[in-house]
Design goal:
Blueprint lengths: L5 E9 L2 H12 L13 E6 L2 E7 L16 E8 L3 H10 L4 E7 L5 E6 L5 E6 L6 E2 L2 H12 L8 E8 L3 H11 L3 E8 L6 E8 L2 E7 L17 E8 L3 H10 L3 E2 L5 E2 L5 E4 L1
Length: about 270
């Protein structure tokens, strides 16, 4: 049995919840909503059909996460916007530095990167991808039509999670074959000497971007530290959480604290 519901929310650890709420409201127009199991120190931010769950951690840090895509695990989360440059004006006005200023990227999209107050890596992107290899013409066309209908002033909506994997075959076996995520297409970053390939999979209403390289990758530093800031886990909606967790364990995931599963690349997952 496969699961097709996909990414439900991404949990992010923050030092100061009020500060982070101001950041996500002012730069990405995300405002809190009542969420499941709401408690003190937790805020749920709807970003289209996917939620961000902000958890105040107190003392803590990124736990060894660095801004280097050769490090396996979660790399960034991305939001679709109507116009990257228009949204980037708000980032600049807020005094937030870009880790990558707005530019035209391989695949025909415009992108920019910056970090939240605790170092969580965020991307904004517009337009639609022109895949070098198309696996699903129907899904690629759906993306094109959605981009054509998106107004320039459209607010950000959650688009994707990017993860780095040690090997594409193993990632496909885990996400495509075990969870049923359908491959949309691939973009080869031929200009990158690291041998960079991005494989895009539909994960419910969001996309999972899998980064692979011919250059050696380094291990994910993720641990289940309750004070961890930045990316804490990806919650995936499934038909039967216990059954799905069992299948993912059989597919190579290990069980960490509080029911978090960690795949072979150090990507933390929770089935809900």
């Amino acid at each position: 049995m496969s699961d097709h519901k996909g990414i439900r929310h991404v949990e992010i650890g923050v030092a100061d919840l009020a500060r982070s709420l101001d950041f996500y409201r002012d730069l990405l127009d995300l405002t809190p909503a009542e969420g499941p199991a709401e408690s003190a120190g937790v805020a749920w931010l709807p970003a289209g059909s996917v939620l961000l769950k902000l958890v105040e951690t107190g003392d803590g840090d990124l736990g060894g996460w660095v801004n280097d895509d050769l490090q396996r695990g979660i790399r960034h989360i991305g939001f679709k916007v109507g116009d990257v440059d228009l949204r980037a004006e708000r980032v600049r006005d807020a005094g937030v530095p870009f880790t990558l200023p707005p530019l035209d990227a391989v695949g025909g999209v415009r992108i920019a990167f910056f970090q939240d107050p605790d170092g969580t890596h965020l991307e904004i992107t517009d337009n639609h991808l022109r895949y070098h290899r198309v696996a699903s013409p129907q899904l690629a066309e759906r993306e094109r039509l959605a981009a054509l209908s998106r107004p320039r002033t459209a607010p950000p909506v959650f688009d994707h999670v990017a993860v780095t994997s040690a090997g594409l075959d193993a990632a496909l076996a885990f996400y495509r074959d075990t969870l049923g995520y359908e491959v949309i297409g691939q973009i080869a970053q031929d200009q990158d000497p690291r041998g960079f390939l991005i494989t895009y999979m539909l994960a419910g209403d969001a996309v999972l971007e899998v980064f692979t390289f011919t250059a050696p990758t380094t291990a994910s530093p993720w641990t289940p530290d309750p004070c961890r800031r930045g990316f804490r886990h990806i919650a995936i909606a499934v038909r039967d959480p216990e059954e799905a967790a069992s299948r993912l364990t059989e597919a190579g995931a290990r069980v960490a604290r509080n029911g978090v599963l960690v795949d072979a690349d150090g990507v933390p997952l929770v089935t809900v």
